[in-house]
From TrEMBL:
Residues 6-63 form the HTH lysR-type domain. The lineage of its organism: Bacteria, Pseudomonadati, Pseudomonadota, Alphaproteobacteria, Acetobacterales. InterPro entries: LysR-type_TF (IPR050389), LysR_HTH_N (IPR000847), LysR_subst-bd (IPR005119), WH-like_DNA-bd_sf (IPR036388), WH_DNA-bd_sf (IPR036390), YidZ_PBP2 (IPR037402). GO terms for molecular function: DNA binding; DNA-binding transcription factor activity. Keywords: DNA-binding, Transcription, Transcription regulation. Belongs to the LysR transcriptional regulatory family. It comes from Gluconacetobacter asukensis. This is LysR family transcriptional regulator.
């Protein structure tokens, strides 16, 4: 192979496809047209004698050859950027990139609106997707490169990600002031008097109830709903309360006027963490997005 005839820009196209798993998103990332990226992919396939990326229901998935090439090309491009003193360029005011932030534990309710407002202010053509990701699929979602950043309440660590602590949170009680008159704080015996709503599959509640039982208390669960998003509607229909993370209470109090009562901390400190793939460290756009997430600390507490 005559390396002098290889267009080094093809490495950038390859890495954009590797990270985005989409021709259209790769084109946005590189500020190119989709036909230009498709043409570069055809050249890459001819050069390598391999399909490299195959279209599936999960996007453009890499072949084994592409997986082998990715880390090598990533390192080579990083080395070249370092030698040239470049970190990549990103101007939020003029960018039309799309970003996906994956959240579990209902974190998207608190983080998504804040990020949207900030992005609309400084990057009017950027598109944000705040994706709710079940905790047991967050690893798979990162593996498939379906999200750019992960925000989680679970103790997920990966060798290919930098983990940053965003905040800690506690559990609180919420109710509709039309039906319940909650004090500033509730004792456990007072909490257990109320009929309550539980979020189906919310593991944090299982931890809370386990700790509650260890102290000799138990809650009366009258309703189970699929997600945190159902709570305001259900709480407005009956004299009932729910125990939720304080970032959910903060988001819903602003939006619906729910009242909030503090609870004794019986489950210990709970941490919210950001996982940022190491492969993104020289992507100026993702570094900018990570900065917005780090600056959003005020959304996590009541």
């Amino acid at each position: 192979m005559n390396i002098s005839r290889i267009d080094l820009n093809l490495a950038q196209v390859f890495l954009a496809l590797w990270h985005e798993r989409s021709v259209s998103r790769a084109a946005e990332r590189l500020a190119l047209t989709q036909p230009a990226v498709s043409a570069s992919l055809r050249r890459l396939r001819a050069l390598c004698g391999d399909e490299l990326f195959v279209r599936t229901r999960y996007g453009m998935q890499p072949t084994s050859r592409a997986t082998t090439m990715a880390s090598i090309l990533e390192e080579c491009v990083d080395t070249l950027r370092g030698a040239l003193g470049q970190r990549g360029e990103f101007n939020p005011a003029f960018s039309s990139r799309s970003f996906v932030v994956g959240c579990d534990g209902g974190l998207d309710y608190a983080l998504g609106p804040h990020l949207m407002a900030k992005i609309r202010e400084v990057a009017p053509n950027v598109t944000l997707t705040a994706r709710a990701v079940p905790a047991d699929t967050m690893n798979l979602t990162l593996d498939r490169r379906e999200i750019d950043l992960a925000v989680t309440i679970y103790p997920l660590t990966r060798p290919d990600c930098v983990t940053l602590s965003l905040a800690s949170y506690r559990m609180v009680c919420v109710g509709d002031p039309e039906f319940v008159n909650l004090p500033e704080t509730l004792r456990l015996e007072e909490l257990c008097v109320w009929d309550q709503i539980l979020i189906e599959g919310a593991r944090q509640h299982s931890v809370f109830d386990h700790a509650l039982r260890n102290l000799g208390f138990s809650r009366t669960i009258r309703t189970v709903v699929p997600s945190f998003g159902h709570l305001p509607l259900f709480l407005r229909k009956a004299r009932t309360v729910a125990v939720v993370p304080e970032y959910i209470a903060h988001a819903f109090r602003e939006m619906t006027g729910l009242c909030v009562a503090g609870l004794p901390d019986i489950v210990g400190p709970r941490e919210i963490r950001l996982l940022s793939p190491v492969a993104n460290r020289n992507d100026a756009g993702l570094c900018w997005l990570q900065g917005l997430v780090l600056d959003a600390r005020h959304v996590w507490s009541v």
